Amino acid sequence: MTYVVIGVVRNPVRKSRPDGWDGVKSDLILRDDLEPALDAIEGFSHVIVVFHIDRVPRDEQRLQIAVGNEDEPPQRGVLATRSQLRPNPIGTSVVRVLHRRKNVLRVQGLDALDGTPLLDIKPYLPAYDSVPEAQLPVWAVRHEDGA
Amino acid sequence: MTYVVIGVVRNPVRKSRPDGWDGVKSDLILRDDLEPALDAIEGFSHVIVVFHIDRVPRDEQRLQIAVGNEDEPPQRGVLATRSQLRPNPIGTSVVRVLHRRKNVLRVQGLDALDGTPLLDIKPYLPAYDSVPEAQLPVWAVRHEDGA
């Protein structure tokens, strides 16, 4: 499957980090010719950003990783995690829309490094995308979430 | 950007339809070599499925489409909609996990046709993915949602 790059992420974050993304503001700079494709997106409070995780070497990808809240977590399938070391380095993040000007959409909370290539932007529709009652296995509950 | 096909969707739906997907059960059949990557995913009640929308001809893609709940909706940016006619035909859907057996994950509610190529499966994490209070513009509120 081959896709085009529709734009690029601009923000101050140059190095990977596990968290601390909530306050990060990013400009999603679309290709000039795609500006009309953004029209009316500013009416949504949130969007789903689909991006290419471009800073993970392909040879670091693996099928299982040791992850979980145990002291010594066992290997688990990479598709059961949000690790970047997945078969296809595609990221999806729900972010808040701050404003749009021409071909630039400013958002908050995107966990992507400066320079990340963009693949898609979709409006967030709670009726389809929000499942507040979704359940996690015990090993995946983060301690800082109050568990 | 080039990605590999990690598996395929199997379900009884052969023709596109705008809705009626809630009850559709699908088998996500992963490539045999990727079976270990699914380990532990059955502990999540919901996953995000990322797939290639393979039944939309590239020459039908456009920057704007007439969509909205008005009698005669104006043209709006395709990225402000969930239309399949977007620059990159990548779909993302939140679905319920029914069960997993070896390399097959059975899910409910996936809006993808039989034979659709799979790109990624991610666990749904409400802390990141659920925003029940997200706002829509008036034109995007569906009448059947009670608006």
Would you mind describing this structure in some detail?
- The structure is a homodimer of 147-residue chains.
- Chain A is an all-beta fold.
- Chain A is built from 1 helix and 8 strands; from the N terminus they run E-E-E-E-E-E-E-E-H.
- In chain A, the strands form 2 sheets. A 6-stranded antiparallel beta barrel of chain A has the order 1-2-7-6-3-8. In chain A, strands 4-5 form a two-stranded antiparallel sheet.
- The longest helix of chain A is centred in the C-terminal third of the chain and has 4 residues.
- At the A-B interface, strand 3, strand 5, strand 6, strand 8 and helix 1 of A face strand 3, strand 5, strand 6, strand 8 and helix 1 of B.
